[in-house]
Design goal:
Elements (H helix, E strand, L loop, with lengths): L8 H7 L1 E6 L6 E8 L5 H19 L10 H15 E5 L13 H10 L1 H12 L8
Antiparallel strand pairs: 1-2, 2-3
């Protein structure tokens, strides 16, 4: 019998999963860690619904109806999507000494300047097995 209390992936996704950033190419650990919400969390699903509604309203109003998203808009959407999933981080520094505190502004700068980090955040957040209920 399926026990839904013990298989609540949305709740586990909300609690988050911490992963170590890996260097592109080598896969070597960096010593920096990011804690993310899973795609099935309530916060992420609410954000996705809100974004879908905004897009539909823009389309229905005919505003920019036939105009595709610019590359800047696509990048901004991806950054916002990743920021919505990040709960915290540790071990990230610009100078190897002073840790960068997690704020939305710092996350936006970091993800725009280092797209490989953005990719890892999105990949780890969508991996259901990272959020197995206890």
């Amino acid at each position: 019998m399926l026990n839904l209390q013990k298989t609540n992936y949305a709740e586990a996704a909300e609690a988050g999963y911490e992963f170590e950033l890996k260097k592109p190419g080598s896969g070597e650990g960096t010593g920096a860690f990011i804690k993310v919400r899973g795609d099935q969390s309530k916060i992420v699903r609410a954000w996705s619904r809100r974004k879908a509604t905004e897009f539909q309203m823009k389309t229905l109003k005919g505003k920019d109806k036939d105009k595709p998203m610019s590359m800047d808009e696509v990048e901004d959407f991806g950054v916002e999507q990743a920021i919505n999933r990040i709960i915290s981080w540790r071990g990230i520094s610009d100078d190897g000494v002073n840790e960068i505190p997690f704020t939305v502004e710092n996350a936006e700068r970091l993800l725009k300047d280092h797209p490989w980090i953005l990719e890892q955040v999105v990949e780890e957040a969508k991996e259901l097995l990272n959020f197995l209920p206890e």
